[in-house]
C-alpha cells in the first residue's frame, strides 16, 4: 500500500526550478531513500511535503488524504514527522521537554485545560512524559533527560531530533541527512536504530549521502538531479544505473 | 485651498521625513550591526542640537563649522556609549531585550542631564539661513529645508555605496550576520561595532543640528522623532535606501494628512499605513531569526522548586505561613504613602505578568501593552460611571474587552522580530490616539473623573489598606493562573515557539494560534490591571497609557527576569518603587534611575529573579541533605 | 610550519584539551581524526584565535601566535573552513567569496582567484547572486571551502569539509585539497571520514577525549588494525 504519493510536484524559487515535476511514492512499511547530487532538490522535496514551503504545482497525498497546501502543523498532526539537515532543537529546553514537544499530535490539553487542570489533564501530562521518556530510551538518551538541549554533544542532538519525531507515533518519518557529522561507529548505531524504527511499523523516508548506509538499509531508492527523477529502483539497480553513476556516485579512486 | 497647497505641504512633509530618515538610518545601522533597537538614538538628536546651540551661542562659530563639530562630537559620544556600556552587554551574549533596556537607561539619563544643563524650556536657535524662500513654480522653498533634503539624500547615497560596493561595507554586513566567522576572515568586529555606533551617533547629531532651527532645542526633542524614525527604518526593511524612502513617505503622509484630512487623525492615518506596509511587505515567509530572549537565563529547570517530593514535608506549610504572615504584616507596618505606591506597583505587576507571558514565554515583542491597560481602565470606568455596573462585573469585563482587542490585533503577530516591535508600538499608539480623539466616549485629554471606588458585597474599598487586600488577592489569583498556564502542555508550546518557530511548527504547533492565545491572555491581564488602576486613582486620562508606559512595562519584565513569574512581580516593584525612593535626589533622580537600569543590565543579565535563585538553591540543597541523613 | 606545544583549553571549568602537541610541516597534509567530541574543532578554533588556551603555545613559522585575535591570525596566513560551513546567510555567494579575500592587498588577484573557485565549483558560479543562506547544505560547504581558498592562506585548516557533500563531490574536494597542496599550501584536515582523510594526507594524529593517543605516517595509520577498527569500521 502506498503511504505517500507525490504527483508532479514542482517548486520554483524565482527563476530557479528546484523541484521539477517529481512523481514518487513511498510504500508503507519500507525504508525509502532519496539521493542526488548537492543542490538537486532533496531538502526542498522534504520542505514541500511537510508544508514549510507552498508548492508551485502538483499534489501530495498521504494515507489516501490530499494534504496539498496543508500548513506544517497540520501535516504533522496527520502523522508525518521529520528531522532537519541543520539541527533544529528547542535549545533552552531540557532534552526531555524537547521530546515531550513531539507528542503534540497525540494530546489536546489547551489553555483552558491548563487553567482548570481536571484529572484528565494531569493524566495526559503523565502520558506525555511517559511517551517522551520511551522515545528517549529508544534512541538511548534517557540518561541526559534533564540536561539542557544545547549542552549535549552534536551527535546526541541529532538523535534527540529523531526521538522528538518518534514521540508522536508518526506513520511516516522523514530524515534529512541523519548521519552527517557522525563517525563510523555512530553511523552503524544509527543504521540499527533506523531498522528498529521500521520494525515498529513506521515508514522511513531518508535523504543521505552516506552510500554504505543508503545501500544497506533502503528497500527503494529514488535518485534526483536538477529537481528531476533520474533513477528509481532497488539499491542494486540504482547502483548499476549508468545515469546515476555519472551524476552522483562516480569519482576516480584516490590512493595514498 | 489652491493648487500649490499640496506640493507646498508635500515639500515640508518631505523635509520632516528626511529628518526621520537620517535618524532612522542611524537606527538601521546599529540594528543591522547588533540587532539592537537603540532607544538612545533620539537623544543623539537632542545632543546634536544642544552641542550645536552651545557652539553657536558661546563660541560664535559659523554654521558649517558648528554642523561638522556637532557631528564629530555626537559620533564620539555614540562610540563611548558602545565602548563603556553596550560592549559589555554584547559580550555577555545577553538577550536583545537587555540591550534595549540599557539603551533606554541611557536615554533616560541623558534627558535628565539635559534638563540639568540646559533647562526644561525649549531654546530657540538663532536664524542661520536666509529666511527669504526660494520660489519654485509658486512653491516657497526654505533654504534650511533644501539643506536638509540635500544632506539627507547625500548621506543616503554615501551609505548605500559604502555597504554595497566597498569591501569594508560588505565586511560589516558579514560581521553582523556571523561575528565569529567574520573574525576568522579578518574582520575586527569590535572596531566596526564601535564605528557603527559612531556613525549612527553622527547621523542623529547631524539631524539634531538640522532640525533645531525648525523646532527649537529641547530635552524631549529626540523622543518625539524616535518613534517615527524607527517606523521609517522598519518601513524600509532596515535597509539604507528603504529607510530613506520610508522616512520621506512617513513625513509626506503625516503632513498631507494633517493638512488635507485632519490634524487630530494624522498620526492615526500614518500608523495605519505603516501597519499596512509592514503586513504586506515584511511578513516573513519562513520562520527564522534569533529569538529575542535568546541568551537569557530562562531555561526551564533553572527555577528552584522548593516543593518537590524530595523536600521535607513541612516546607510547603511553612512557606504558606510565612507568606501569609508577610502579607498581613505589610499593611500593619507601612504608612499610607508607602501603601499607595505599593498598591500601584502591585497593580502594574498584574499587567507585567501578562506581558511576561507574551515576551518572556512566547518570545514576542510587545510595545503596546499600556494601550490594553488603558482599554481595561476605560472599560471598567465607563461601565461603572455610565451604567452603574458593580466592580465584580466590570473587572472581568475590562479583562475581556482588552483581550478582545488583543484578539483583533492577533494578525499582527504574523510579523516577527523588530517588525513586530514597531507593529505593536504602532498599534498601541493608534489605541492611545483613539482614546484621545473619541471625545464622545472618553472625554479626550480631559479624562474621566469620579470613577467610583470598588464596592464588593456592600463594602466600599476606598482606603489604601483595603485596596491592598483587593489587589493582592487579584494578583495572587493571576499568579496562580499564569503559573498553571506555563506549567502545562500549553505553556511548553509557548516556550517552543519562543525557542524555535521552525521546529515548533513541524511538531504540530499552530504558530499564529499559539501566539494569539498568549497575546489574548496577556492583554486580558493588562485589562484587569487597568480596571484595578482606574478604580484606585479614580481619575484617568490617556496620558497614563502612552508608549512610554508600555516601555516601562517591558522594563519590568526584563529587569525582573525573562520567563519568570516571580520576576515580573519583583520587576514591577522595583520600577515603580525605585523612582519614588530616589525623589530625594531631585533633578538627579532620573539620571540615577537611568544609570541603575544600565547597571542592572550590565551586571544582572538574568534579571533580579536570578539574584534570588542562588540563596534558594542553597536552601534547597541544605534541606535535601537533611532529609537524606534522616532516612539513613 | 605550525607547532602546538602542550596546549590546554577549557570551556569554563571543563578542560577539553589536556596538553596537545602536534606539528604540521610545510607543504604537507596532516589529518586529525577522532570521535565526536574528542576536541578536534577545539584545536582548530584555538589555532584560529577564537579560543584562548589556558596554557601551552601555538607557533606559526617560528613566531609565537598564542593569544592572537582571529583577525590577526588570518593576516598571518592561516584560514579556517569552520565546522558547519557558517556562510554569511544574507550575503550573496559572490560577496561571501569576496569576504575570503578581505585581508588581501592584491585585489586584482582576488578577482582571479574567485574565478578559479567558480571553475572548481560551477554551481557557485551559476548561483553567484543567490543569497548564501538559501543554498543547499552541500552548496554551502562548497562556498565555505571556496571562501577559504580566496584567502590564499599559507596554512589551510579544514573542519569536516566533506560534511553534507555527495560522494562524487567528496572525491572532487579531496582532489582540490591535493591540488592546493601541490600549489604550496599546507593543510591541517579534520575529518569524520577517516579513511578518506588518511588516504590523502601525509601524516595523521589520532585524538581521543582531549589527548593525542597516536601519531604516525598516514600510510601506517591506515593499515593500523586499531585505527581501522575504531575509526573506519573495518
Ligand atoms: N529559498 C531559496 N531560494 C532560492 N534558491 C533556493 C532556496 N532554497 C533552495 N534553493 C536552491 O534550490 C536547490 C535545491 O536545494 P536543496 O536544499 O533542496 O538541495 P539538496 O538536494 O537538499 O542538496 P544537499 O544535498 O546539498 O543538501 C539548490 O540549488 C538551492 O540553491
Ligand atoms: N561552547 C562549548 N561549551 C562547553 N563545552 C563545549 C563547547 N564546545 C565544545 N564543548 C565540549 O568540548 C568537547 C570537544 O568538543 P569539539 O567540538 O572540539 O569536538 P570535535 O572533536 O570537534 O567533535 P565533532 O566530531 O562532534 O565535531 C566536547 O566534549 C564538547 O561537549
Ligand atoms: Mg539538503
Ligand atoms: Mg568538530
Q: What separation lies between the terminal Cα atoms of chain A?
A: 48 Å
Count interface residues per chain for the largest interface: A-C, 36 and 41 residues
Number of domains of chain A: 2
Percent strand of chain A equals 15-25%
Q: Total number of helical segments of chain A? A: 10
General shape of chain A: globular
Offer a quick outline of the entry:
The complex is a heterotrimer of chains A (256), B (632) and C (234). By secondary structure, chain A is of the alpha/beta class. Chain A has helices at residues 42-49, 72-77, 95-100, 111-116, 119-139, 154-167, 184-199, 211-217, 235-240, 242-249; strands at residues 2-13, 16-27, 31-35, 57-62, 65-66, 80-82, 172-176, 203-207, 220-225, 228-233.
Tell me what you see in this structure.
The complex is a heterotrimer of chains A (256), B (632) and C (234). Chain A folds into two domains: 1-79 and 170-256, Rossmann fold (3-Layer(aba) Sandwich); 89-169, no CATH class. In chain A, 38% of the residues lie in helices and 24% in strands. Chain A has helices at residues 42-49, 72-77, 95-100, 111-116, 119-139, 154-167, 184-199, 211-217, 235-240, 242-249; strands at residues 2-13, 16-27, 31-35, 57-62, 65-66, 80-82, 172-176, 203-207, 220-225, 228-233. In chain A, the strands form two sheets. Chain A has a six-stranded mixed β-sheet, with helices on both faces. Chain A has a four-stranded antiparallel β-sheet with strand order 2-1-4-5, with helices on one face. Chain B has 632 residues and is mainly alpha-helical. Helix content of chain B is 74%, strand content 2%. Chain B has 25 helices and four strands. In chain B, strand 3 and strand 4 (459-460) form a beta hairpin. In chain B, helix 11 runs antiparallel to helix 16 and helix 13 packs antiparallel against helix 21. Chain C has helices at residues 40-48, 70-76, 93-100, 107-120, 122-126, 137-150, 167-182, 194-200, 218-223, 225-232; strands spanning 2-11, 14-24, 29-34, 55-60, 63-64, 78-81, 155-159, 186-190, 203-208, 211-217. In chain C, the strands form two sheets. A six-stranded mixed β-sheet of chain C has the order 6-7-8-3-9-10, with helices on both faces. The longest helix of chain C is centred in the last third of the chain and has 16 residues, at 167-182. Chains in contact: A-B, A-C, B-C. At the A-C interface, helix 7 and helix 10 of A face helix 6, helix 7, helix 8, helix 9 and helix 10 of C. One adenosine-5'-triphosphate sits between chains A (13, 16, 18, 36, 38-44, 85) and C (127, 130, 134-139, 164).
